[in-house]
Amino acid sequence: MDDQPLVRQDPWQALRRHTRARIALGRVGSSLPTREVLDFGLSHAMARDAVHLPLDTDALRQAIESLGHETVEVASRAGDRHTYLLRPDLGRRVAPEDVERLRGMARQPGPDLLFVVGDGLSSLAVARQAAPLLAAVQAHWPEGWRSGPVVIARQSRVALADEVGEAMGARMVAMLIGERPGLTSPDSLGVYLTWAPRVGCHDAQRNCISNIRPEGLSYAAAAHKLLWLAREASRMQLTGVGLKDESDVSVIGGDDAPQLPKV
Amino acid sequence: MPSRSSNRETFVAYQTTIGGLSFRFDSLREVMAKATPARSGDHLAGVAAVTDVERMAARLCLADVPLKAFLQDLVVPYESDEVTRLIIDGHDAQAFAPISHLTVGDFRDWLLADEADTAALAGIAPGVTPEMAAAVCKLMRNQDLILVARKCSVITAFRDTVGLPGRLSVRLQPNHPTDDPRGIAASMLDGLLYGAGDAVIGVNPATDSIPALMTLYDLLNEVIEQYGIPTQSCVLTHVTNQIQVMEKGAPVDLVFQSIAGTQKANESFGINLGILDEAYDAALSLRRGTVGQNVMYFETGQGSALSANAHHGVDQQTCEARAYAVARRYKPLLTNTVVGFIGPEYLFDGKQIIRAGLEDHFCGKLMGVPLGCDVCYTNHAEADQNDMDTLLTLLGTAGITFIMGIPGADDIMLNYQTTSFHDALYLRKVLGLRPAPEFEDWLKRMNIMDAGGQVQPVGSQHAMLQNLPRNLLTA
Q1: Residues A11, B410: C-beta atoms closer than 8 Å
Q2: Interface test with A, best of B176, B178, B380 (most A CBs within 10 A)
Q3: b/e string for B188-226 if b means 16 or more Cβ within 10 A?
């Protein structure tokens, strides 16, 4: 061997400031250096744990109750994670006994906007982002709107909130759910807003806010977007493709609405 | 012994007895589905065999089905599906003649025989329907899929020549979550300096606004012109957007579209053959290719028809092969099966993803389509980079036309893992594969590749670093 270092650095590392893509990794021969193999492995491990670690519902319930909300826990019809991953249809439905329980709790009139928090594909996202987002929403809660208990759902897909909302007689439901984790974003939360929720609603009938986490869309910005959409949905009596998100354009929430970063 | 009895003219039953147990299948569609190696998507659809013995019973029946039956017993109705009409009306009886007397089981033997050389396989390709390819595939082991695919040759060209023997091309995929031109240019430079990009430089945009897309086309075109790269660009937006930007004069090399194997699934993508015809004609009329005029780039993947609830009870591997009949109509430069992207409810783990990748490559090549593979997985599938190494190496051995190249195998826009620039160098090194010849000459001219054909590390004085893309200089 000559005195060349084993790992050849790529001389364009300065370009990394333009992207989070894994550029200028260097090489040994034509292969990845050890530190990059380990770094990738760690990112993958975090993303895998985000999918497979069960949601700590006790901790989440306490965090949400400390905001002053009541909570209810339900399960989907997918009994475990393995079934959940293989059968998306079961993750979209509430376990029958829990549907009955929710119906028994329904009050007249029902909530204007009901919150469901579901583990989805990242329990990490829900554990980290759900309570702070609810707090940000609470800070700008529309005058006179009824909420309901926050429903915490295990092994859930987005559409599970339709059945919850229907059972509780909600005008609108917002599903806060862990998004499919990426290697650089294992803890992204998504919110899906659905007007007149009922079993069988299509995805085209929802509005989505994505990538909610400190490194992505902030809690304040996400809460602003959500409440803007909820007010417009209430005015137009619909969500989905007929409701275009123009929350960045006109601020309906008043002067105290948070400033949105440009995304 | 398996038997096939015709009770009425239109009703054919397939049955066999194994150890005193009788198995009966009511349609060719059912035989095909139950003969398929196990995978989660077919279970989700409720079409999979329930037991391993039932699966083998279906294979025994399938082996005795004459290839001619696939021209009569249609898995998706002719009247209601334009993909079926394309398959049947476009069938080349003359090309089919040498194999028209065979059963599916015989066809496997015919393909593996040494007499079935590259010329013989190219000769029958227009006579092979997707259902014939899918059926024989279900009787083949992984090594059979590799051996036969390796004998197939599908050569296409635009600014370089893709698919020549002993060559492996790479799609450079410089995605960025917000389409930042500097971020995209940085990933492009990273890939080019690692010898990637001879299949296409293709971006998946985050936006679908026409002005933003025009900016991306100009960015890709400028880099290709600045360095005189013998390759082509593509922006993977909806085909109707591409028709619009062509009307506005954007420098469009390849037209992209995701396609599937049934009319209803294609409708869920917002396309039909008429729209694809229009885009194809528009791209051809630009005449931007220099060494060839293959102007289309398609992406496919098992499970897409089921996910659109448009599978008609047909198994996902057969639906996938039908997508290649759509691709074949447009003489594409590239067709890419994005094998592990769809998630574990369709392909659960590394084993299922590896099998599907080999199946798709085999069926495509047998039908004369230039198949590449996005060797990939998501974080909720039971797979990891080792599974990708295995599939990558197997597909390289099978003569895959192209693979993806992404910085560090991590797509920060689409949130999945595919193959990296390093992976492509690995595969070229262990199997002695080279880039497309025009691109290889360029790499040597640019001092990225040495005389021995190895892509070498470059120094800070390299011409491309001294003369950065405009988007990086204005940063």
Answers
A1: no
A2: B380
A3: bbbbbbbbbbbbbbbbbbeeeeeeebbbbbebbbbbbee
Name the CATH superfamily housing domain B156-466: Aldolase class I (3.20.20.70)
Distance from CA of B186 to the nearest CA of A (A): 6
Tally the domains of chain A: 1
CA distance A78 to chain B (A): 13
The CATH architecture of the domain made up of B1-65 is Roll (2.30)
Partner residue facing A15 (CB), from B189, B378, B457: B189
Which tokens sit at B325?
A: 């009949």
A50-59, A95-104, A203-212, A231-240: least confidently modelled range: A203-212
Helix B52-63 / helix B28-35 crossing angle, nearest 10 deg: 130
Q: How far is A122 from chain B (nearest CA, A)?
A: 9
Share of chain B above pLDDT 90, in %: 93
Q: Domain containing A163 — which CATH number?
A: 3.40.50.11240
Q: Which residues of B touch A31 (CB under 8 A)?
A: 422, 425-426
Q: How far apart are CA B306 and CA B436, in angstroms?
A: 36
- Interface predicted TM-score of the whole assembly (ipTM), two decimals: 0.94
CA atoms within a 13 Å half-sphere pointing along the CA-CB vector of B12: 19
For residue B263, what is the enclosing H or E element?
Answer: helix B263-268
CB contact under 8 A, A86 and B185: no
